[in-house]
Write a structure and sequence with these properties.
Elements lengths: L2 H16 L5 H17 L4 H15 L6 H20 L11 E6 L6 H14 L4 E6 L6 H12 L2 E3 L7 H12 L4 E6 L7 H14 L3 E7 L6 H12 L3 E5 L7 H10 L4 E5 L7 E3 L2 H9 L4 H10 L3 H12 L5 H14 L2 H7 L10 H4 L3 H12 L3 H5 L2 H5 L1 H11 L3 H19 L2 H8 L3 H11 L6
Parallel strand pairs: 1-4, 1-5, 2-3, 2-4, 5-6, 6-7
Antiparallel strand pairs: 7-8
The chain binds guanosine-5'-diphosphate and magnesium ion.
The site of magnesium ion has 5 residues, from α5.
């Protein structure tokens, strides 16, 4: 479900954040990836075209440069795709509420009613379902069985053919419930017959909401369907079902956004608990596989700016590398959140392909180191060597930062290791053409037993 869009976005964003500059080749590639995935997901070609134009315009805007351009591009892509998917709108259920479900045959009305009954009764509402589908012979049985699964009461009549009479029969009893979900009959298409029937039911039952149920596999056709129902019966929102079984879900969702029909829920399977509230923002974060946009933008800007990189390179050439440099790396690394990123940020080392287990992330430890560095004086940071000789200082830092002296010594060891690696010329070598087998062996011997991260 929408995985293709997710993957294309993910890879585009990765391409942007990993690239040094945004050039025409990159932009063309990204636009092509995004276009392909959106069109495969059945998103309207015109919308895709408009999005491409926006990306291109921003990308080629000469007034925005470097990191800023990358950030803005990623944000643009994120925001525009989110806008394509529409706004989040929650169904407000307070006090006594009646919801009428409508839709064509087989759209998933009855299933969705049971899912919602389950959803709201789990949230403390007293829920009833009312069967007014007198068209399909097995409709009442189906609702009855599904209500049983949801553990809510079903009001049905297997013989009565007039939906209004069924409602009248149970009207009084239904007043005891917080939430009444009303199932109605569908048709093959939105014909006069269906419109009249729904209007009559609506007049009699006076629902607080009218929700149109549509299956995701109709793709872009959801647009026509939603607007026809909107015109004839004025709907408050939609539920898109069968999101699990189609590549066209993007079409259905974007079509709803276009017609401004809020998507309250999506159905993601046949089971009673396979229902989700639809929130474009968290949805897109999820398909992008990241927590939120801010974290992402931080990643881009902290993935060492060119300036920062230059500075470290220079310090390295001068043979200088203080705890402060390490500290800066730790700081930016905290935003990125992985330990090997620290190494990859130090020029040369990233390319040296140090065995992964050596670099495995130990974020807890790094946090402690960071605290320890925070408790150091400037002199100690610039000149960590003085710490080694003065146990009292280590003890002071340990107390001040809640770190053990062992951890501080380990930090110093790390620092020394990285520093000697950088000043031994190996880093440069690695940067130029990679380390030879011999160099790697030398490194391994040199740090054997020292690397305990
Ligand atoms: P109705 O005619 O509108 O009441 O539609 P039903 O509720 O009877 O659903 C029609 C078919 O779609 C049934 O076989 C359901 O099991 C199936 N269905 C409904 N919602 C979903 C969903 O979210 N995912 C999947 N995979 N199937 C669904
Ligand atoms: Mg039904």
């Amino acid at each position: 479900m929408l995985e293709k869009i997710g993957n294309a976005l993910k890879s585009s964003i990765k391409k942007i954040s990993n690239s040094l500059f945004v050039d025409k080749k990159l932009v063309d590639e990204i636009i092509k990836d995004i276009q392909r995935s959106l069109i495969e997901a059945d998103v309207n070609v015109q919308l895709v075209f408009e999005l491409s134009q926006k990306i291109r315009k921003l990308a080629l805007d000469e007034t925005i440069k470097g990191i800023e351009k990358k950030e803005q591009l990623i944000k643009l892509i994120h925001d525009e795709i989110q806008a394509l998917l529409g706004e989040k709108k929650e169904l407000q259920i307070s006090g006594k509420t009646k919801i009428l479900f409508l839709g064509l045959y087989g759209s998933g009305k009855t299933t969705s009613i049971a899912k919602l009954a389950f959803y709201y009764s789990k949230r403390g509402k007293k829920v009833a379902v009312l069967g007014l589908d007198t068209q399909r012979p097995a409709a009442m049985d189906q609702l009855e069985q599904m209500a049983e699964k949801a553990k809510v009461q079903a009001f049905i009549d297997k013989k009565e053919k007039n939906p209004l009479k069924i409602y009248k029969k149970y009207k009084k009893e239904l007043e005891d419930f917080d939430l009444v979900l009303i199932d109605s009959a569908g048709r093959d298409g939105l014909n006069k017959d269906l419109i009249k029937e729904i209007k009559d039911i609506e007049k009699e039952t006076k629902p607080d909401y009218r929700i149109l149920v549509m299956p995701a596999d109709i793709g872009q056709a959801a647009k026509t369907q939603a607007s026809e129902f909107q015109k004839a019966l004025s709907i408050d929102g939609v539920i898109i079902t069968r999101m699990d079984g189609t590549a066209k879900a993007g079409g259905a969702l974007t079509a709803c956004a276009e017609t401004r029909a809020p998507v309250f829920f999506i159905g993601t399977g046949e089971r009673i608990d396979e229902l989700e509230t639809f929130d474009p923002s968290s949805f897109i974060s999820r398909i992008l596989g990241m927590g939120d946009l801010n974290a992402l933008l931080e990643k881009v800007s902290s993935a060492t700016t060119e300036k920062q990189q230059k500075r470290i390179e220079e310090r390295m050439k001068e043979g200088k590398f203080t705890l402060l440099d390490l500290y800066e790396q730790l700081k930016s690394m905290n935003q990125i959140g992985s330990f090997d990123k620290l190494m990859s940020m130090i020029p040369g080392i990233g390319n040296a392909k140090i065995p992964e287990n050596v670099l495995q992330s130990q974020e807890g430890k790094v946090k402690h180191w960071k605290n320890a560095i925070d408790s150091m004086t400037e002199e100690e940071i610039e000149n960590p060597e003085i710490l080694e000789k003065q146990t009292a200082r280590i003890q002071r830092i340990s107390k001040g930062s809640g770190t053990t002296t062992g951890e501080i010594r380990e930090l110093l060891k790390q620092y020394k290791m990285i520093k000697s690696m950088m000043t031994s010329g190996m880093a440069e070598k690695a940067q130029e053409g990679g380390l030879s087998q011999k160099d790697m062996m030398k490194l391994a011997r040199k740090f054997k037993g020292k690397i305990k991260i």
